[in-house]
Specification:
Largest sheet of chain A: 7 strands, mixed
Number of strands of chain A: 9
Structural class of chain A: alpha+beta
Number of helices of chain A: 2
Strand content of chain A: 35-45%
Largest interface: A-B, 39 and 39 residues
Bound molecules: magnesium ion
Oligomer: homodimer
Chain lengths: ~170, ~170
Amino acid sequence: MQLLLIHSDYIEYEVKKSTPVAEKIEDPMKSGRLEDALTVFIAVEKADEVNPDEVAQKAVSEVEKVAGQVKTESIMLYPYAHLSSDLSSPKVAVYVLTAMEKELSGKYIVKRAPFGWYKAFKISCKGHPLSELSRSISPENKDGVNVVCALEGKPEVVSEALKAESTAKS
Amino acid sequence: MQLLLIHSDYIEYEVKKSTPVAEKIEDPMKSGRLEDALTVFIAVEKADEVNPDEVAQKAVSEVEKVAGQVKTESIMLYPYAHLSSDLSSPKVAVYVLTAMEKELSGKYIVKRAPFGWYKAFKISCKGHPLSELSRSISPENKDGVNVVCALEGKPEVVSEALKAESTAKS
Ligand SMILES: [Mg+2]
C-alpha cells in the first residue's frame, strides 16, 4: 500500500462519472467535504492481497500517528490509483478502504471518497513540514522472502526483513 | 520520471520554508497561480540521471500531448518527491525541471514551483476522465538491458524493450 498524507485546510470531492470498477454508492457518498483534515490518498497494492486485514490495520496505525502529530480529528480516506503501478484487485481495495474507515470511525470524524469513480476534488495543503508525508506499507513477510531486483546484470538483493514496515520519504 | 497530470480549475502555491536541498529562488518564484491549467507533478528519478536531456524532452512531449487533449495553454510544473521512492539527485532534478520549463515556455504559459521548498498549495481537479493521468518515463535503454524482479522465488523477467516508453494508468 502506498499512502500520501496531506494536512489540509479543506478537502472536498464530488463524483462525476463511474468507471467499470466503480463501487456502488448511495447519495450521501457522492460528495463530501472536511475542514482542517488529514487527507489520506491511498493505493492498495497487489502485495496487500496476501493479508488485507493486516495492511488495513498497519495503515490505520500510520494514519493515527500522523493525525496525532498534526493534531487533527478529521480524516478523509481517498482512493488514489496513481500512487502505484501494481494495484490490487478492486475488490481487495474496497475491502481495505472500508476496513480502515470502520476502524478509524470510532475515534475520528471520517469520510471516505468512493472507489472507482471519476471525481472532481479541491484540496488546500497547509505547507508546514509535516503537511505532506508518504508511507509504504506491506504485509509482514513471515517466510523471510527476498525481493531480488537486477538491473544491468548487477543484482541487488533487498531483504524484506531489513526494510522497515513503513518508510517515510519526508 | 514519474508524472501526475491534473487538469485543474486552478493551481496555486506559496513557499513556506526551505529544505536543505532548496533551490535558490528570487521573489517572483515564491508564489504562483494559474487558472484552467494542466498541473504536472514531477518526480525525477535516479534512472533519469543517465540522460536528463532525453527524459526532459520525453516529458515535454507527454505534457504537450495531454495539454492538447484537455485543451489548455497553461502549465504548472510542480516538483513532487512523493511520486517515487528512487529519486535523482537534487541537482539533476532542478536541471530537468528547468529544461522542461524552458522548452515549454515558447508555446504555453508556464510556471514552475521551486524545488526543495515546503509549499502550501491549493488545487481544484476538474474530475473529467482525462483530468487525472499518470505517466512513467525513462531514458532509452540502448543496450536492451533487462530488469529482473523475483518475488517468492518466482522470477519475473520484464524486458525494457517490451515496455512502452511511457505508460498510462488511467
Ligand atoms: Mg511508485
